[in-house]
Please model this.
Amino acid sequence: MSGARPLEPWRWLGVPMLQALTATVLFGIPLRIFDLQLPEPVFPLSLAFAWAVIRPSILAPFAILVMGLFLDLFWGGPMGLWALCLLIAYGVALAGRNMMAGQSRLILWAWYGLTVATALVAGYLFVMLDSRSSPGLIPIAWQFLATIVLYPFSQRLIDLFEDADVRFR
Amino acid sequence: MSFRDNPFGELKVPLTWAAAIALIVAVVAATAILLSDRRETFKAEAYGVSRKASDTVLAPVGDVLAAPSRWTGAGVDTLSDYFAAGSQNADLKAQLKVMKQWRDVAIALKDENARYKTLLGLKTDPPIPMVAARIVTDSRGPFADTRLANTGAEHGVKVGNPVMSENGLVGRVIGVTGGASRVLLLTDIASRTPVMIDRTNARAILTGDGGPNPRLDYLRGHDPIREGDRLLTSGDGGVVPRGLPVGTAVKGLDGRWRVVLASDKAPIDFVRILLFQDFTQVVNQKALSETPVPPPTAGPNGADPAKASESPAPAPVTKAAAAPLTAAAAGAPSKPKISDPANGQTKPAAATASPTVKKTDASAKPALPAKPKPKPPVDGAQP
Model:
């Protein structure tokens, strides 16, 4: 009955979470070459999508909450903003999980783009309410582009762990 | 195989529901945290223990991680300086020629200013102490634009202190802990900075929107701004001192006036934190609030105004409160007049929008004759 063996949380939640947070810190280095700065992708969004596709989990929402709070602390934004945006993205992906089953990579990428867009739209609305001013759409578009190119990382995580527990195939 | 025949089928639904409940609990927790956040107040006590603790940890980590990029940048600079030494030398010689003329103008203006200040008895701003700091982490997303500097409370940095690079204003401190300060950039969505257009003296509020070019809100007056106008801090509200360079005005793609920040000319690696205290921090608020309210003046059907003026006035508590009384006793005009630099005429101070002329000072001393603004030297011409 090896197929029913539970997946160890540290393998599919803990290690990717540490990797995403490390990548976030590395991209936070003030580096500017030839007047160009590093982009600021939201690495945890790729995890929020992959975790929802791999399997429903009780621990995943709390891991996402922790990652979101870290982003808020590290980036100096309103506390709870990214935590809420990531959880909304996770909820959207979880709700569409049955529709995503068996789809091609391109369709999954489109779903990932939709999830990222939902998170950024939610962030736009929350920030607008918080600061009573509209954030610029161009910087949001740049962050959207910088984040959707991270889909291969999500796909790799899905490929690694989607079949790890046959109960959730 | 039907659903019931699958031995694990019945496990699927309960775990999905449990995951949904966990998601709802996490969303409620995140919402509560977001609602309780008071970042927008920019007060020292609103910064929170969690932010202070994370900044204390992140500052040395960021310092170590940023070291290779600093070394790389320094290496690239050295190489480019080496190969561009000839053209740089010619540029610097040309700049020096212009700067020498500006130096003469500056010396003349400094002397003139000193004379006027003596004549007016102006209380000038004291020099502002500052501390240097290195930027160790950087966030540049659409919802937060902040930087972490590796100097904190141990050097006297306080919440609200303005931060400058060698080119211009960068932002202000919103959080301080031991060994680190969180700097809110001018581009952050929550940033509001009172600025003025150098050419027209018109006021505006520089509002960040997460992009590289913050916009100018609340611009007033007829044709107050043009493309390329220089912007400085106005000092209104006492948040930042007056006259710090901010940038130049450009018309944005959306048709709004925006600012190309002066601090964007070069990478912001080292900054100066000005240990500036605004009026509300310096003044004794308690003493101000305890100032006795003057008795009501006699109305048109009341007692003789002359008799009313003979009644003893309440003793002022502060020097600031005493100044207008002294001026009134000296017979100064009730409507102070200032010179109009445009046409050399004088007009009532109330008709101007500039808050730089304080009524107290203007009423205490007579107005100066109009003086034409010194023109910048033309290349090759002696000022």
